[in-house]
Amino acid sequence: MARIVVFNQKGGVGKTTTTLNLVALLARRGSAPLAIDLDPQAHLSAICGTAASAGSDSLYAFYQDAKLLAELIRTSSNGWSIIPSHLDLSKVDTQFGKGPRALQRLSTGIAREHLNTDRPIVMDACPLLGVLSLNGIFACDRVLIPISADYLAVNGALQIDRTLRALERVLEKPPMRRFVTTRFDARRKMSWDIDRKLRERFGAEMCETRISESVGLAESPAQNCDVFTHAPESRGARDYIALLDELQAAGFVG
Amino acid sequence: MARIVVFNQKGGVGKTTTTLNLVALLARRGSAPLAIDLDPQAHLSAICGTAASAGSDSLYAFYQDAKLLAELIRTSSNGWSIIPSHLDLSKVDTQFGKGPRALQRLSTGIAREHLNTDRPIVMDACPLLGVLSLNGIFACDRVLIPISADYLAVNGALQIDRTLRALERVLEKPPMRRFVTTRFDARRKMSWDIDRKLRERFGAEMCETRISESVGLAESPAQNCDVFTHAPESRGARDYIALLDELQAAGFVG
Ligand SMILES: Nc1ncnc2c1ncn2[C@@H]1O[C@H](COP(=O)(O)OP(=O)(O)OP(=O)(O)O)[C@@H](O)[C@H]1O
Ligand SMILES: Nc1ncnc2c1ncn2[C@@H]1O[C@H](COP(=O)(O)OP(=O)(O)OP(=O)(O)O)[C@@H](O)[C@H]1O
Ligand SMILES: [Mg+2]
Ligand SMILES: [Mg+2]
Questions:
Q1: pLDDT over threshold 90, residue A172
Q2: Adjacent-strand bridge partners of A241
Q3: Bridge partners of A200?
Q4: CA nearest to A60, candidates A72, A48, A43, A76
Q5: What share of chain B is helix, strand, coil (3-state, %, to 5)?
Q6: How sure is the predictor about A99, in pLDDT bands with cuts at 50, 70 and 90?
Q7: Which pLDDT does position B122 carry in this prediction?
Q8: Which residues make Cβ contacts (< 8 Å) with residue B146, sequence separation at least 6?
Q9: Going along A13-73, which residue ranges are E strands?
């Protein structure tokens, strides 16, 4: 099954929003996904009502070799499975960052514990290409890159392209990539300008679907739920449905 | 003179946008500010046309003990001074992060070279509480915390409050703090809800001025300039003028 990491080192582009809503939709379609929160700020964990009260109840315990990944799986407020994060994870870079296997630890854990055999995995990364995000990239076979429709985010997209190309040499099998425009506002000339630039640059790797700026998407985290529960008729809900349809048709996810 | 760090570990809340426009306005008001780009992604440096082509032309060279801060000062496309960043700075955490003086290096450098004697300094931080951002916090006497008017950013604000309180014990003199709401959209109930929550929580430390969602602010980086050059009549320009007026009246900056 697919192992997707949602990554962009630019901050605030919709990584958590995308992870939350794709996992929720995969769950509604019956594929029992597993989410993994790789961001020490644990926004996804907090939205799901599974914020770990201590590092020992979070992914951090796996890096300390204290627990198996399977022991850390919690059930979110929306009913699907998640391995939560905790602020302690920000120590991973300095505590566990060196060493030959440091970047493959998550990949090895997922394989050893057969966590991906009959369920897709979606990982939410923090806005830094550090040890945790690299663990996500080494553990995945798909990278989904949200790019908000603004100029500063375009810089970030070009940087990621360079980063992933450089990593392809060390990854056994380079992951399939998809870029998706988020926070697209059709009333702004800037949104169209950026979307066009991205399509010229990334071609077929660019999703046809654009995620619109939609208040339902920004509000659902406060209700501890996804957009399909909070605002099922919203533009945001329809766009994420169209995105998953497109990703499934492309074989990006089952 | 004031030494301000613009920080929030939540991504995409308007740190770079705030640094760019406050520095531009301080320059227009004749105080010849110095900007320092502490983000390895170097967004501020790129906007100013001073993106360093190599680590040796950026703040990274200062951490390598290869150059003085004063040797790294460049003139931005808008005419004010900036010490640019470079992707190599992301190595600072693992290369220079340990050691007793690691967090005070920038502070010591600014003091030794008298960079702050007759000009304010404004530092743009990356969305991570790592060695670079801590260098900014130890070097500053003011912390300006942008918080975008959305729920996920509120989580971040509470985390910062805890972080700064914990740091106060090790800082010689705790910095003066101000929080400012950004990307405020008066048509959204959520914006008012969040702004009220922040005022209840942070009281007098919360700026009266709110920075509105304004396309002029999002567009100016593509023109390599600040909002006062690109869209002087825009809502964004007026809001940052009001913000600087308020900060100057409060003695936060000269
Ligand atoms: N399409 C959208 N429409 C409206 N608001 C959105 C949309 N996508 C994201 N947002 C809002 O923008 C803010 C940033 O999104 P989010 O936190 O998901 O980004 P991120 O990339 O995960 O940020 P970080 O870099 O801090 O991890 C959030 O508050 C979210 O609610
Ligand atoms: N008030 C505003 N109105 C409209 N757009 C804004 C506003 N403030 C910021 N933006 C846009 O939102 C995006 C995020 O802002 P910015 O990059 O300044 O945030 P940041 O906190 O510096 O992000 P990072 O965490 O990646 O450093 C930018 O593309 C910017 O143009
Ligand atoms: Mg996130
Ligand atoms: Mg920034």
A1: no
A2: none
A3: none
A4: A72
A5: 50, 15, 40
A6: confident
A7: 98
A8: B6, B8, B13, B14, B15, B17, B18, B180, B182, B211
A9: 34-37
- Chain B interface test: which of A38, A41, A163 (most B C-beta within 10 Å): A41
CA distance B12 to A152: 10
Q: Number of A:B CB contacts under 8 A?
A: 86
Q: Which of A126, A129, A155 shows the shortest C-beta gap to B43?
A: A155
Mean pLDDT rounded to a whole number for chain A: 95
For A118-155, write each residue's pLDDT tens digit.
999 999 999 999 899 999 999 999 999 999 999 988 88
Partners of B182 in the beta sheet? B148
- Quick one: angle between helices B151-168 and B189-202, nearest 10? 10
Instruction: Classify residue B168 as exposed, middle or buried by CB count within 10 Å of its CB (0-12, 13-18, 19+).
Output: exposed
The CA B17 to ligand 2 mean position distance, Å, reads 6
B86–A contact, CB cutoff 8 A:
no
Please give the distance, rounded to the nearest whole angstrom, from the Cα atom of residue A19 to the centre of ligand 3: 9
Q: Which chain B positions have a beta carbon within 8 Å of A152's beta carbon?
A: 16, 43, 221
Question: What's the pLDDT score for residue B43?
Answer: 96
The string of pLDDT tens digits covering residues A174-233 is: 999 999 999 999 999 999 999 999 999 999 999 999 999 999 999 999 999 999 999 999
State the nearest Cα–Cα gap between B131 and chain A, in angstroms. Answer: 11
Q: Which of A43, A87, A93, A152 to mutate to test binding with chain B, by most B CBs within 10 Å of its CB?
A: A152
User: What ligand 1 atom has the least distance to the C-alpha of A212?
Assistant: 1
Residue A180: φ, ψ to 5°: -135, 130
- Indicate the average pLDDT of chain B: 95
Contact A139, A110 (CB under 8 A): yes
Dist. CA B254–CA B247, nearest whole Å: 8
Nearest CA-CA distance, residue A151 and chain B, Å = 6
A217 Cα distance to chain centroid: 16
- pLDDT means over runs of 10, chain B (254 residues): 96 97 98 97 96 96 96 95 96 83 95 96 95 96 96 87 89 92 96 96 97 96 96 98 98 94
Residue A159, chain B, CB below 8 Å: the answer is yes
Q: How far apart are CA A231 and CA A236, in angstroms?
A: 8
| Closest alpha carbon to A104 in A61, A84, A83, A134 | A134
Q: Does the pLDDT of residue A8 top 90, yes or no?
A: yes
**Closest to B218 (Cα-Cα) out of A88, A76, A190, A245:** A190
Which has the closest alpha carbon to B26: B37, B18, B16, B15? B18
Question: Residue with the nearest Cα to atom 15 of ligand 2?
Answer: B14
Q: Quote the pLDDT of residue B216.
A: 96
Is the CB of residue B167 less than 8 Å away from at least one CB of chain A? no
Contact assessment for residue B144 and residue B4, using Cβ atoms and an 8 Å cutoff:
yes
